[in-house]
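[retry 2/3] BED-type domain-containing protein: previous attempt timed out, resubmitting with same input.
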Amino acid sequence: MDDQTLVLPSTNNQQAESERLKKAGKQSSWIWKHTTLLQNKGQPDRYKCMHCEKTFVRSGTGVISRHLKNKHNEKLRNLDTQSTLTKSGELVLPFKPMGRIAVKDKLMSTFLASRDKVITILKGGKVALTTDLWTSPNKLAFMAITAFLLSDKFEPIEAIIGFKQMLGEHSGINIANTFFDTIKLFELQERVKI
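[retry 2/3] BED-type domain-containing protein: success.
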């Protein structure tokens, strides 16, 4: 390299380049994280691929982008054409759906957090419980349990604490077991008075 060539890594020059592009009303590109800016007096600026020795005239991102995807795809495996670059230069990968175990875990943690909030609210006063039982058109039996109470400001609070499928018939024992399991889940078993 001669003394007239100035090499600037794009990570150091990225903010200045990003600011220049913002002022010009243009978007930043993910390719600048994989190139180095070469400036030579009297010659057009060039970008050098950080993964090989290939250089490109600084005229846009299309040629460099195709080069990176065609020649260095294994290094860019996590990149996707749907990825976006934020204003701060962070690459945001596309949405990846959660697996079945992760969905189950997320649902359970959300339920437990919500249940804890409801338990805290229900400890604030006397609670009235109501039930509703019905059979769906496809012959499935359900039981809903709703808790009612008045807040300290005498505002009504209502929460559905149970929505369960009833297995078996609508017998008194079956209804009582489902009801008791639900009030126990919300720590109301000691507060129920008949």
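[retry 2/3] BED-type domain-containing protein: Residues 5-92 form one domain.
[retry 2/3] clearing retry counter.
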